[in-house]
């Protein structure tokens, strides 16, 4: 079909060649003036196997939609579209080898490669420092590169429907991120660093392999949406408790700290003083104990913003700590009521590490 069946540039600068069954796109029928006036070009829902280099004749293009074609590559000339801010290329045959070498030098703000064949996020994409929205849903991604942290303007990251197994801590450096979509992947844990995402309003984690969340997630006070359905959470948690007792050093340290035995620098070598400083207080409100290296991983259900009952990770001082508290702390029994309402078999414990 010839392109002159398509529309001319409207007063709004929109040139629409979508849904015309085009196998090729020749720009000869578009006047030079129209090419210059066009700021949005729609070539979506055609049968294009290749993007003609003549697309770069539209020198003022700000938005290009080439979704729902059969494209397997975007040519090197593409980077000449210096004013392009939005590229929508959903549902094509693109992969990490399809992009121009200098793609990262473009000034894109919105990039949508959902429904393609990417197995990795191309490093060129992590160089788009003005990018505010990146969508790579429904691809074949297995991981998120640490370089994602370079996308310092990013507000939306959509990576749902891939094979991602881990969230790198570097994601936490995306300080403007408001929407993080990681649903329908194979993620087993959430790094506690994510709580640095102070702008985060929506976190989508449904249909993954999560067994717990880090308790730090409670500090995401601006979070308005959190989806967790379709995760095993504690259901598939390890049932056997293997007890690896604390060392004599740790036992001595625990006694000194929990009994408030006074000590000062002349009493002991500096490495022992440093060791004593590393004591963590047991989070069990009924326990006044401390721990160093030997602790028990424990899942506790906590209300989150009154909307969810989240299984959160705690580290307790000993395997006895939950069932028969190490010692009494009369100050707070409030939290423990929570615990009693959860069936005992769902409060599984395993040793850390
Ligand atoms: Zn304890």
UniProtKB/TrEMBL annotation:
InterPro entries: Leu-rich_rpt, Leu-rich_rpt_typical-subtyp, LRR-SigEffector_domain, LRR_dom_sf
Disordered: annotated span: 328-353
Pfam families: LRR_8 (PF13855)
Protein keywords: Leucine-rich repeat, Repeat
SMART domains xref list: LRR_TYP
Keyword Repeat in record: yes
Leader sequence residues: none
Record has Repeat as a keyword: yes
PANTHER family the UniProt entry points to: LEUCINE-RICH REPEAT-CONTAINING, LEUCINE-RICH REPEAT-CONTAINING PROTEIN 58
Name of the featured protein: Leucine rich repeat containing 58
Organism for this UniProt entry: Hippocampus comes (Tiger tail seahorse)
Lineage, uppermost ranks: Eukaryota, Metazoa, Chordata, Craniata, Vertebrata
